[in-house]
Design brief:
Elements: H1 2-6, E1 11-12, E2 21-25, E3 30-31, E4 36-39, E5 43-49, E6 52-57, E7 61-64, H2 65-69, E8 87-88, E9 90-95, E10 99-104, E11 109-113, E12 116-132, H3 135-143, E13 148-150, H4 151-170, H5 184-199, E14 204-215, H6 218-251, H7 258-278
Parallel strand pairs: 1-4
Antiparallel strand pairs: 2-9, 2-13, 3-8, 4-7, 5-6, 5-9, 10-12, 11-12, 12-14
Helix pairs in contact: 4-5, 6-7
Length: about 325
């Protein structure tokens, strides 16, 4: 008898074999005597009879349909299983979990940008979350004609309108087309609001829409890298000054580092430059030297030094010193 009984019973359940399914309709419409309903964590089970919702069961567990489910159905409370009277009903399993979806623009979006008459082609990538928020709307709009509904179906609908939404929200408030990543959060929030409003027409909510990156053409990337390199050259002077000050402060405590070596080199160069500045050029191009400092012949131009490099006697513009006879130039 036990074997005979099992031939007329079945399990009403959803194993969620495929990932990313928002709802699944149980295929066998005949629920036999002795059948059981299994609701797993993260699932709701909705009984449908003649297209109407008879009952919604949200607590996970293993239930005897005849004794624990039928008494709570709206129009089937008095249903009695007989030898040839299985219950012809549909069971819709709802995935109550929030599902993560990755998205990306199919084609580049041409955005108006200064200096680019044809616009600048930009791609965008990111993620969003979706979940069923209204059972009645899902049943009315989707479950009547679909066996299941997946995140790929949601993604396809969103991608279809995403290009226009990106163009609309990027063009607002005069954003910098060459640095869209800085405004990614505010752009994403605006798009999230519009997408959520549209998808709720199907009973599905959209949340946590993010833009992870904007992708520019290679030519634009090279221009940005070049501009960044030029900016770094200007900032190196500031960095050197800060490193010098920091190194001098540490040097007082016996510190030794590459930065302090750089500072020492710079200080030496500064002293050398100061010495050169002391050797001022006169109005007529002559180099002013202190007595005793030698200058090799031919190392200066014009009429020669004002003092003899050999004995220090003032010169009179002649080629030889009048005191020691040394050649001046």
């Amino acid at each position: 008898m036990g074997l005979f009984k099992n031939q007329f019973s079945n399990l009403v359940e959803w194993n969620e074999n495929g990932e990313g399914v928002l709802f699944y309709k149980w295929q066998n419409q005949e629920i036999k005597k002795g059948s059981r309903l299994i609701i797993r964590p993260g699932q709701d089970a909705i009984f449908l009879y003649n297209g109407r919702v008879e009952g919604i069961f949200e607590d996970d567990g293993d239930y005897d349909i005849e004794s624990e489910i039928i008494p709570f159905l709206t129009t089937l409370k008095s249903f009695k299983f007989g030898f040839n009277t299985p219950l012809r009903a549909e069971v819709l399993f709802i995935n109550t979990k929030e599902l993560l979806v990755k998205w990306g623009t199919k084609n580049a979006i041409n955005l108006q940008a200064p200096g680019l008459p044809g616009g600048m082609p930009v791609r965008a990538f990111g993620t969003f979350n979706c979940r069923i928020v209204e059972h009645d709307v899902v049943i009315e709009k989707l479950a009547g004609i679909r066996q299941m509904y997946t995140v790929n179906d949601v993604k396809e609908r969103i991608i279809a309108s995403l290009d226009q939404l990106l163009m609309s929200w990027i063009s607002k408030e005069g954003r910098d087309m060459f640095n869209l990543q800085s405004d990614a959060r505010s752009i994403a929030k605006g798009i999230e609001s519009d997408l959520d409003m549209d998808m709720r027409k199907l009973g599905i909510g959209i949340s946590d829409f993010t833009i992870e990156s904007f992708s520019y053409p290679e030519e634009i990337k090279k221009m940005q890298e070049k501009a960044a390199a030029q900016s770094m050259v200007g900032d190196m002077n500031k960095y050197t000054q800060m490193a010098a000050a920091d190194s001098m402060a540490k040097g007082g405590h016996g510190g030794s580092s590459l930065a302090s070596d750089m500072v020492g080199l710079q200080m030496g160069m500064a002293m050398g430059q100061q010495l050169v500045n002391q050797m001022n050029m006169g109005g007529n191009g002559n180099v002013q030297m202190q007595p005793g400092v030698q200058v090799q012949p031919g190392s200066t131009s014009g009429t020669g030094p004002k003092f003899c490099p050999n004995c220090g006697t003032p010169t009179t513009g002649s080629k030889f010193c009048g005191n020691c006879g040394n050649q001046l130039f």
